Fold each of these.
Amino acid sequence: MKHTISVLVENKFGVLARISGLFSARGFNISSLAVGETEDPTVSRMTIVVDGDEKTLEQIKKQLNKLIDVIKVVDFNKGAFLDRELMLVKVSVTPKTRKEVLEAIESIGGIIENAGTHSISVAVTGDHTKIKALLELLRPFGILEVVRTGRVAMRTEDKGLKVEGKPEVNE
Amino acid sequence: MKLTGARILIEGLRKEGVEIIFGYPGGQVLPIFDALYDAPLKLILTRHEQAAAHAADGYARATGKVGVCLATSGPGATNLVTGIATAYMDSIPMVAITGQVKTFLIGNDSFQEADITGITRPITKHNYLVEDVNDLARIIKEAFHIASTGRPGPVLIDLPSDIQMKETEFVYPEKVDIRGYKPTYEGHPGQIKRAAKAISEAKRPILYVGGGVIISDASEEVRKLAIDNDIPVTMTLLGLGAFPQDNELSLGMLGMHGTAYANHAIMESDLIIAVGARFDDRVTGKVDTFAPHAKVIHIDIDPASVSKSVAVDIPIVGDAKTILKDLVKAVKKPDTKDWLKTVKDWKVKHPLKYKDNGKIKPQYVLEEIWRATKGEAIICTEVGQHQMWAAQFYKFTKPRTMISSGGLGTMGYGFPAAIGAQFGKPKATVFDIAGDGSIQMNIQELATAVINKLPVKVAILNNGYLGMVRQWQELFYKKRYSYTCLGGTCPDFVKLAESYGAVGIRVTKKEEVRPAIDRALATDNCVFLDFHVEEEENVYPMVPAGEAINKMLGGGLA
């Protein structure tokens, strides 16, 4: 099962290597990873989508928490959260298919960033389902290139994930 | 006062109470060595950087203080790697300092450059590359704090040589505040209550005690919990010494080469009280068959150790000593009379044993060393058969007297670790129990031992083989002894020891064993005891890999 975990880390060089190294060394699978600065420039947030059962997820969280540069680890599968990813896709068009392609893009809410004679470049943001839906719609016309960011996620019903020490891990 | 980076390092080490460093010089640590020249700190010059790391580790295990090692960039740093990994696996507090090429040369494939923070990332608790001399004092403070608190471990500081020469105002921080590092020490009161209740209701409880008890200095609390409540105790390799083996509640070591009665007691128990142990595969054997009737209480400072391999019913995260103190108060004594009778019966009927055939049996050598030292020596070991015999036949009674590479299983560990331990405990009798294979992996340290007048005794159980691998080949590979025969007479360990100025004693007859040990003990010098032991002796009992731990070869109950 896929889990989305949000990790607040020190905004220092080498932290990404520590995190990705931990995943590879312990045989955990990363489906996607996105990193960026937060409202506090000394803190970065990583949104990691991982694949694994409950036991594996528990180990991943504990092992992440052991890293000195990790400030906080939160599992988003508990409680409401918003997740988005951005995809850029270039689809081929002919005078014949052009209209149909434009309709497909519009139906999903994609933004046309560049329209050429032979191809159209589209940007779409959304959750996993929306991204997948657009890909399925465009696939018959010939997809030339896909570029995706990792997933980013945020809880919607709290005051925000803040740095105030690691949560109590004592069970 | 303005100081150079090198001076700041020395001052920082002094502030941390460091008296001794193990190290080796080189191009990118010249400023540090220059500062050491007249510093009130002793550097012990080993003959290989790996030995410096192991010596720092042995010093840390014998004293409980942070061990410090120092090496130059590139090959100096990479030579530390095995020692750092050894310390990491066994949670040993260590600070490793490496020189690095000048900051502007980093990443240029410069002479003697290695990305040592990258290389050691998975084998250190944390590491630092110092980029600004103004960060150095804080980094030293943090490194010692991280290495010695929580679940201890090695921390590496990579210090470019230009930073060593830059000057800044020296201000040593009073406190450490790392927002991502706040270890839990106090146990959760509710969990302690639940654990106390489970113990009070248990019929067949067993304490399973690991190296965490030694690190946390919780032997006294373990003793109290066991003796007050009549609970038998088994120990891991690193836990040996945590509970006195001359006490009748002691079941010795468990696991792959544990005693039959310890393994059986675990398998039959209805409650395992694990303290500072991590259910390692050498202990559990096949995990799904492990202790089928037992509820598990797990006391450990590392939350990631809890339910990693064996599911835990009552986890208590925190410091073993602190938690045990509270737990002892809360427990009502269970009725374990029948259980103790069963366990004692197993102990009598299935003791550790070996066949005497007039030749020198390695187990006999260990028994004689134990007798001659009255069980009070610090025993360091290399890795292999001799290590398991030491664990089985030397009856440890005190913490910090068993010093062995448990997790990583590093051959070549014991001799430098013994050197470190002897520096930490100058008055103690320190032995390195070795095989003829392992001792050759850091034999150059004879020079360090002799020059520093260390009376370390090295007992080589010389069987001419890489014995443990040979044993597996005998049992599981149809006796196809592929590249495990060492010959036994090369080198001549006596002459070799003598060439370094140490004492060498060869022992080829059983009746010479004890006199040779006595002579070694009476010698105020490093001694190599070359015991020519039975060549194809096996370590029993033995749980074959992937089996349940009560399915033991040789000496099991079945």
Amino acid sequence: MDKIKLDAWVGIFVAIGVISLLGLAMKVGNLTSNDIRETYMVTANFENIGGLKPRAPVKGAGVVVGRVNSIVFDTKAYHAIVSIDIDKRYVFPKDTFANIYTAGLLGEQYIGLEAGGEEKNLEQGDRITQTQDAVVLEKLISQFLYSKASEEE
Amino acid sequence: MKTLLKFFEKIGCSFSSRTLRLGAATRLFFLILIYSADSFKRIHLTIREIYFTGVMSLVIIIVSAFFVGMVLGLQGYYTLQKYGSSEAIGVLVALSLVRELGPVVTALLFAGRAGTAITAEIGLMKATEQLSAMEMMAVSPIARIIAPRFWAGVITMPILASIFSMVGVLGGYVVAVPIIGVDEGAFWSQMQANVDFRFDIVNGLIKSVVFGIACTIIALFEGFDAPPTAEGVSRATTRTVVTSSLVILALDFVLTSFMISG
């Protein structure tokens, strides 16, 4: 087996491998999306985050504009501080609403951003002041039962 | 009574001999690492081994991957459509392949094809005294023969696993979209939304590298340690396949539990 043919075949082999890896990354995985763009981080406080997890999508008008970075519990004020990375291309005003929605009926939870009307925009390190917690099923049921009970009175 | 004692004797003997062999294999592993400089300075040694382990395995990997992908597509569709989620077939095929089937099946095929070839080659070299001849000439057989094969195996495994996953996904696509009629856009978009590069694809690659190290070391050790007879070499190749398969599946469980929790 002479050297040139050997080298050629190994070169082709490695090339096929690299192409399949790139194919996997781009077509099968999600490497083409906002993971490689520059982002800015803002925080938001929630009383109950429900099933929100890190790396959950952050959507504006249904379009993914960022990802949840981290979720920590504030031991002083007893609420959750959620840090989100928003793509630098998308700017939101300072009075944006951050709500936790569920994708589909039982799907994963995500943060939906609704723009307010202020002129100044959110910057790195700002805090979103208007937030709405996730819908917790137990609270909904107890609300329903309570309203049913008071109705019958 | 005597048969019972003999039974325990056999167990004890096999246990101690296996432990000794495990120690010898670990020694071989560290020797390979120490003598690895030559595998990279004289890279043509390693390239020759990449040809014989990797390029020659391409046919079996690609054909198996295509059929595995097609079967996944078919079976997945008939189960998913009962729950009305036939559009998730892309996610099913891609995640099964990238996370588990790609690395594991590639490693099993690699152990069967390339592993046995390595074991037989080195066993034969030992039986025909080529290894002793090299030592006589002050050429380290580990540096010249064993280490290049080790690095070739480690380099080849992730490449083969990526090829397996990609061809498998294409196989699943061929069954799901043109043949069964699942919507093409839904197939790819659901897949892209649910397959994460860092957690799925990179983890699959890490698994395939670990399997490559394990399989290649087992194949090299069985060949190096084989009794220098024809029967010894053939027994050694069988042991390579059996041991590699068990170790791959055990390591798969260990790695998966690390990756899921951590």
